[in-house]
Amino acid sequence: MIGRDEILALIPHQGAMCLWNEVIAWNADSVRLRTKTHRDPAHPLRSQGRLRAVHLCEYGAQAMAVHGGLLARDSGAAAKPGLLVALRGVELRVARIDDLPGDLECEAQALAQGEGSQQYAFRIFHGGEIIAEGRAAVMFA
After folding, report:
1. Global pTM exceeds 0.85
2. Could you tell me which of 19, 30, 59, 85 has the fewest CB atoms within 10 Å of its CB?
3. Where is the secretion signal located (predicted)?
4. What separation in angstroms does the CA of 70 have from each of 81, 107, 126, 130?
């Protein structure tokens, strides 16, 4: 398992903006992560005391960043900085996430990876149930 300190070394998101606590498993095509950050009352994405389900898209995008960081580290390189440019087919099955008692888990699978961009599908689970899924695209700087 890979802990938060290693995740912080892999991605540009630092401090409370790093949303994942641990990598459960990963390979060349996918990553599975777990977190409890959604329950933090000081979560940086909260507004009016709530953390809305739309922020699960950021969790999915950060899962992509973690996977990219792991792949880059394995090849002896640094991950390229990227910009989230598209979300597609996003389905949110809850309205908010700050009131969910258990940990969140995410599966992110690479659909296409190139020199200038990458696309992933992500699914986020709570208590074994999918609460969000979609696809995301990132362009590298």
Report:
1. yes
2. 85
3. none
4. 14, 15, 24, 25
Q: What is the mean pLDDT of residues 68-79?
A: 92
Residue whose C-alpha is closest to residue 32's, from 107, 121, 139, 125: 107
Rounded Cα distance, 99 and 52, in Å: 10
Query: Considering only CA atoms, which of 60, 75, 63, 62 is closest in space to residue 25?
Result: 63
Q: Across the strands, what pairs with 124? A: 106, 132
**Order of strands across the sheet that contains 129-140:** 22-26, 30-35, 104-113, 117-126, 129-140, 82-92
The ranges assigned to domains in the chain are 4-140
Of the candidates 63, 80, 67, the residue with the CA atom closest to the CA atom of residue 122: 63
